[in-house]
Amino acid sequence: MKVLIYIAISILSVALFMGCSSNTTDGNQAVASNSIPLSSVEDISRSVSQSVLSNNPSGQRGIWVNGSGLVNADPDMAILNLGVETIDDSLEESRNLAARKTNRILDFLDEKSVDSKDIRTHSFNIYPRYEYHNGKQSLKGYTVSNKLSVTIRDLSEIGRIIDGVSEAGGNATRIDNIRFALADTDKAVSDAREKAIEDAISKADQFAASTGISRGDIVYISEYTAPSYASRDMNLRSMSVALEDSSETPINSGQLDIRIEIQAVFSIEPK
User: Fold this and answer.
1) What is the pLDDT of residues 185-219, one digit of tens each?
2) Closest CA to 178 of 196, 151, 217, 211
3) Domain that holds residue 218
4) Is the pLDDT of residue 49 over 80?
5) Is residue 150 part of a domain?
6) What is the rounded CA–CA span in Å between residue 30 and residue 188?
């Protein structure tokens, strides 16, 4: 708005200057042949104003709304984060023990037909353990940690796989958490996007009806957040040792929430 005021003032100043320079002759005789009518100044100002508004991105003319789409889907795979952690006075013994435990877990996963491409080393760490006494540091041994990320595509096997991994790794087993996911998210994302568009149109129609205007077509649309996939991660840190009984571990996959957020702008049509 300040820009428009400045432009209007500038145009009026130029017009007045031209009028003043052309309206004086010898003997203070008024001459109006070169004066600019006020109506012409208003027309120029209006033209400039419309040009500035049409090219001003901050004008935000139209109906601006956000749309949200949410779809629930049943997961078809799970990502299990597990591994082993060993402690020994000797680095070599700790590393060898971790290797043996990890190999037992890998052998078990192979028996359960888990594809090798679905098993990935998540992290591998070796670090010393120290104790402090009277301000002095003394080396007490070494910890070796080998963590894996395992994709399980048969959800009916999750409980048995967790139990078998715990048995294979023994007290060195560490199972951190499990996350459920979709192997193919295209359809769920597409459905969520459709719902987001429908939501945006519904909001625009409500604004139009409440303000007595008519909604036009979509003139701008943007998906301003990446699709989000909310799952109910299960924290399984309490299973860092062997299970207390022989019952199969119950695991419930629940559902996934796939959400899409968009921004849309609709034109305003004359009634």
Assistant:
1) 999 999 999 999 999 999 999 999 999 999 999 99
2) 151
3) 65-72+186-229+259-269
4) no
5) yes
6) 79
